[in-house]
Amino acid sequence: MKTFYLATAMLLSTFAATAQTEQGTININGLFGSNSGGQFQSTDAFNRFKLNVGANVGYFVKNNWEIGAGIQTGFNTLKQKAPFNDLFNLDKSRSITFAPQLYSKYYFGTKQLKPFAVISTGYNWQFDRTTYNGVTTKGRLNYLNYGGGAGLAWFPSKKVGLFTQLTYDRLYSDMMDQGALNLNFGVQINLGKK
């Protein structure tokens, strides 16, 4: 009898994983951790707060192949503490980033735990506000981002999936060209088939 229950549980978990990545399935997913994720840092010299989150909608054009689009947003503040604000002449700074993006993921296997490959691209608008010696200046920076990597998704049910991914992302504009390695965590919710 135990063998029957174990076999049934394994069959249902395989179905749950297959249903999550079946052609025609739509999901929404949230991502946390990209480009420094969430961070609060307090030292004798400054306080810094960073938060980056993303929300996406994906559609499986074929079994295991998802294409999607979404928005990444970021918020970063830095405030110098006395007497360090006099040394660096920086009182505080703030930047807000808004980045629409496109992505594609390909999942491997039919089990509850599925590795995947991912590529993405997007365009970022960054708005900065900095105060030096009581004088505030505003700036704006636009840049392209693109990258790729690999991850692992776990589907404990037909409706919910948890994932982590490690990506290398490039940020490019006429003023910069830099790369970053990012570890991200996320949740996806299966909305069913279209």
The tally of strands reads 9
Radius of gyration: 21 Å
The pLDDT mean sits at 82
CATH architecture of the domain at 21-51 and 75-111 and 118-156 and 166-191: Beta Barrel
Order of neighbouring strands in the sheet with most strands: 1-3-4-5-6-7-8-9
Largest sheet: 8 strands, antiparallel, barrel
The first-level CATH class of the domain at 21-51 and 75-111 and 118-156 and 166-191 is given as Mainly Beta
CA-based shape: elongated
Helix content: 10-25%
Q: Unreliable segments (pLDDT under 50, ≥5 consecutive)?
A: 4-16
Measured distance between first and last alpha carbons: 38 Å
| Number of contiguous helices | 2
Strand content: over 45%
Classification by helices and strands: mainly beta
Q: Can you put this structure into words, describing what you see?
A:
- It is a single chain.
- The protein is mainly beta and 194 residues long.
- The chain has a domain at 21-51 and 75-111 and 118-156 and 166-191: Porin.
- It is 12% helix and 69% strand.
- It contains two helices and nine strands.
- Strands 1-3-4-5-6-7-8-9 form an eight-stranded antiparallel barrel.
- A hairpin with a 2-residue loop joins strand 6 (113-132) and strand 7.
- The longest helix is centred in the first third of the chain and has 19 residues, at 2-20.
- 22% of the residues are buried.
- Residues 4-16 have low confidence and may be disordered.
- Keywords: Signal.
- Residues 1-19 form the signal peptide.
- This is Outer membrane protein with beta-barrel domain.
